[in-house]
Each structure stands twice: as structure tokens, then as C-alpha cells.
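Hi R.,

Here's the chain you asked about this morning:
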Amino acid sequence: MSEHEAYMRRALALARRARGRANPNPTVGAVVVRGGRIVGEGVTSPVGGPHAEINAFAKAGKHTRGATLYVTLEPCAFQGRTPPCCNAVVDAGIGEVYCALQDPDPRVNGRGIAHMRRRGISVRTGLLSEQAAQLHAAYITHRTQQRPHTILKLAQTLDGRIAARGGDARWITGEEARRHAHRWRSYVDAIAVGANTLLSDDPQLSVRHVRGRSPRPIAIDGRLRAHPDAQLFARPGAILATGQRSPAAKRRAIAAAGAAVWTFPTRGGHIDLRDFARRAAEEHITSLIVEGGGQLAAAFLRAQLVDQVHIYLAPRILGEGIAAIADLRVERIADSLTLKNVHTRTLGADLLYTAEVEYPCSQES
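And here is the predicted structure, written out as C-alpha cells:
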């Protein structure tokens, strides 16, 4: 491993450790090196606060002159809540920049790099770009596809059941797996469940087993079968996504509880989830976990909106029970969804299976 890779790995590690802290902004890591040693490092502050580069410069002080900056994402080039970071890099006297990824935001997209180069700074891109792309996956999806980066989370038995025949689902997985799932809740902007899960479990969708902020809870209920007293609707930032023709009195009651109510056209009582995803992106939701149930999981997969899966496999067999994923309308093996970049790890007695979803090519292509 070269010294440049080592410093960029440090920047990536800093950002991973603070994952979710800056949402909906990307949590960037920055390291300042001078004379072969780290003189400053930082990560992006919560929204409205300084970006990673500024925090690293503050720690480095006068040692930024002639130093090398390692940063996981291109320094921004526009005035938002904070001034452009590319200007701050120039003002700090940085001599060289290693940037893992070019920022896909149309307001940046190479402008920060070009500005620094015009001011005489050597800028090299692409160092550990694959690792940086994984780190910033939610931000990249949001900026390039105008939708949230979506993770389908399933806690299931070995035979693919998320609940017993009568609906009992507590607890399929053990405590270590539940802690891991709640840690990921703290990383994302929002978490969604469907009407069946809302009716059967009345979930809070909050972070409880670890420290961290709770995501915005979302109920996707096209016909609005949920009760306005569901505890989810009283949570800060709660959202109901429902049909335009759903019961108006229920919608008003849920809005009175403090939830935002988003309405969409429906077909057969179901929302087009692509409409929902666009609205979520407009509301600065960059990352989303879909937690249940089987019908909602299948709907997101059919709409090709799931980017990754987190499947927690418990050493249990139920036989008859509720399927983790409902009918995907797949007639041939060749049309099935495949998973790539698969990783597994044990969490107590459970097995966590993470992967990216690869969709079959459409017949039109």
C-alpha cells in the first residue's frame, strides 16, 4: 500500500465512523498531510456546519501551507449554507489534492477541481474511487437518479419467512442482529413500511438498540387502511404516502397528529413507487430503508428501486408463514433478480447477507 492510499484510507475511515451525521449532505472525510505526518483531519459537520475540508484546516492551522489534502469527494464549488470549499483549499495554501471522487452534483461536477487547478494546485482524482463510491452511494444515487438510495432490509428464517402463520414476528433474529439493523437505521434519512406491517405491528421505526438519530418514519398506504392513532404518525418527521382518493377524514386526522401527508394517483389502490421516490428526493431524502412487509418489498423490487439488500438470516425454520417477498411475477429463471458484490458476516447465531441488486435487462432493450 502506498502512502497516498494509506492517507486516503484514513479519510474514508473517518467518514465511515461519522456515517449519517451530515445527512442529507454526504459525510466526507478529509486529511491534511505535511512533512510525512497528518497535521489535520475532519469530517462534514451536521447540516449548516463546516464541511470536512474546513474542519481539517481548522485543526491543521498554519501547517496547511504547502500541505497535501486527501478528500473522499470533490470540494464543493458553490455557495450554499457554507462558502465553496474549493476557495478554502486555495486560501489555505494547499499544494496538492488527492480527490477520490468527482462530485456528481450539477453545481459541482468538476468545477471545484478545475478551480483549484487554475490556481496552481495539483489535483489527482480516482484514488480508492471504488471504496469512496460505496461510502457515498446514497449521495450519488440521489444526485444522478433523483431518488433515494434504497436498501431492502429483511429479517427472516432460513425458509424465507418474516413471520409465523398467525403474524407473530418477534423476534426472528437475535439481539446482535437487531443492534446492527438499528445502527443502519441511524445512518439513513428515512425508513418505510407498508399498510400490513403498520396494521399488524404498529411500529415506531425509531433507533433504540444503539445511539444515533432516528430516521423519518414513512407509511406507504395507498388505500389508507392505517388508523390515525398509529404511533408512527406522532413521530417527528413522519410521512404518510397515500392515494389521492383515500379517506379524506383519515388524512386530516393524520396531518393533525403532525405527519406530512403526500398524495399520489393510484392504480388498483397502489401508488406508483417511482412517483413516491421522486417526491422523497425532492424532500431531501437521500437514503431509505424499506423494512416491510412482503408486499412492499416486492413492489419496490418490481419498480427496480432497490439498490441493496440487507438480509438477516436466523437459524430457524417455520414452514407455513408469511413470505419475506411477495410475488415478483417472474416466469423464468433468466428473468430473476440476481445479487452482486455479495458479503456475509455472522451476528451472533444469525447470518447477515448484504449485496447489490442487479436487474434483468428489459425486453425492449
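One quick note: Residues 40 and 61 are 8 Å apart (CA to CA).

Cheers,
M.
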